[in-house]
Design a protein that fits this description.
Blueprint (H helix, E strand, L loop, with lengths): L1 E5 L15 E5 L4 H14 L4 E10 L8 E9 L18 E3 L5 E5 L7 H8 L5 E3 L2 H11 L3 E9 L5 H24 L2
Parallel strand pairs: 1-2, 1-3, 3-8, 4-6, 6-7
Antiparallel strand pairs: 3-7, 4-5, 4-8
Pfam family, one: PNP_UDP_1
InterPro entries: Nucleoside_phosphorylase_d (IPR000845), Nucleoside_phosphorylase_sf (IPR035994)
Protein name: Nucleoside phosphorylase
Length: 185
């Protein structure tokens, strides 16, 4: 059995309620809800793989719309004891999925400001979201493989929050097509 994970119900609108071989989990938006929901699901059941689908903002000018595999995640809303941006006081700076793909920066706020984009880009990320770091970290604690597919919903600039509401359904349909191709269901 595999676990299909998304943060927000609108990211799964194109997905049927019952997909053979998969259980479905909605975590809620942000690192803490994501970590809590995934931890609880992994305590209650055994899974061969976690498959995360959802949206992300593009902060790299070379990243266009489409679906991207995530190779690793960093956090953009933390600072180390010495004040170093992107460093956490006790968690690893970067968590990896074991797959080829893009680096995503996770934080508990919706990025839609050019200065924030510039700072986050300096950490080496090309995409931003609000859950990926926490989901990878939890999957590692349980030693369960994780794959993450992110559809670009916006450019993480002014107005991105309004744009997300409009494009999330399109992103869900793109994710469903990619999911069907990869998993055959």
């Amino acid at each position: 059995m595999k676990l299909l994970v998304a943060a927000h119900a609108s990211e799964l609108v194109a997905f049927e309620d019952d997909i053979p071989g998969f259980r479905r989990l909605l975590t809620g938006v942000g690192k803490i809800p994501a970590a809590y929901a995934l931890t609880r699901a992994l305590c209650e059941g055994e899974y061969d793989e976690i498959v995360v689908v959802g949206t992300a903002g593009a902060i790299d000018d070379e990243i266009e719309g489409g679906i991207y595999d995530i190779a690793a995640a960093i956090q953009h809303d933390v600072k180390g004891l010495d004040g170093t941006f992107g460093e956490h006081v006790s968690l690893p700076t970067r968590v990896d999925t074991g797959h080829e793909g893009r680096i995503i920066a996770t934080g508990d706020h919706f990025v839609d400001d050019p200065e924030a984009v510039r700072q986050i880009r300096g950490l080496g990320a090309g995409l931003v979201d609000m859950e990926t770091y926490a989901l990878i970290w939890v999957a590692q604690q349980f030693d369960v493989p994780i794959s993450i597919l992110r559809a670009v919903s916006d450019r993480a600039q002014d107005g991105a929050t309004e744009l997300w509401d409009v494009v999330v359904e399109r992103c869900s349909h793109e994710l469903r097509a990619e999911f069907r191709e990869r998993y055959g269901v």
